[in-house]
Design goal:
By secondary structure, the chain is an alpha/beta fold. The chain has a single domain, classed as Rossmann fold. The protein is 44% helix and 17% strand. The chain contains 5 helices and 5 strands; from the N terminus they run E-H-E-H-E-H-E-H-E-H. Strands 2-1-3-4-5 form a 5-stranded parallel β-sheet, with helices on both faces. Helix 1 packs across helix 5 and helix 2 packs across helix 3. It is globular, with a radius of gyration of 14 Å. GO terms for molecular function: cobalamin binding; isomerase activity; metal ion binding. Keywords: Cobalamin, Cobalt, Isomerase, Metal-binding. Pfam families: B12-binding. This is Methylmalonyl-CoA mutase, C-terminal domain.
Length: 142
């Protein structure tokens, strides 16, 4: 199967103690409706659990939903673990309550895109299609 036939695989995760996952479920459903394979890991995930699930599921992207204010901590942990495990080719994106002043630092960490309240699920799907296909082309899979 070449990259044009391959379905994009996305893991959606809720790190930390935040118990609100409605937004994550909406995004997961929208990406599924857009033709992607979506794995939702559920609430209260550690960075280690998220990265291990991403590796086991051979995903193209990880989406973190953070409403707790601990986004810098979780994104830093996930990005570090991906690098440690040689999986920093997995695209990481996020959503939730994330202040604008933190966006440049998240980009420096390697986070591809952050969708804040009001962003459309269509924008998220379009971003993933473009970013993953670009990655596949770089890796010679498209």
């Amino acid at each position: 199967m070449d990259g044009t036939d391959r379905r994009i695989r996305v893991l959606i995760a809720k790190p930390g103690m935040d118990g609100h996952d409605r937004g994550a479920k909406v995004v997961a459903r929208a990406l599924r409706d857009a033709g992607m394979e979506v794995i939702y890991t559920g609430l209260r995930q550690t960075a280690d659990m998220i990265v291990n699930a991403a590796l086991q599921e051979d995903v193209d992207a990880i989406g973190l939903s953070v409403l707790s204010g601990a986004h810098m901590h979780y994104f830093t942990e996930v990005m570090g673990l991906l690098r440690e495990k040689g999986a920093d080719d997995i695209i990481v994106f996020g959503g939730g309550i994330i202040p604008d002043q933190d966006l440049p630092r998240l980009r420096e960490l390697g986070v591809g895109k952050v969708f804040t309240p009001g962003a459309s699920t269509e924008d998220a799907a379009e971003y993933l299609r473009g970013a993953v296909r670009e990655r596949w082309q770089q890796q010679g899979e498209a």
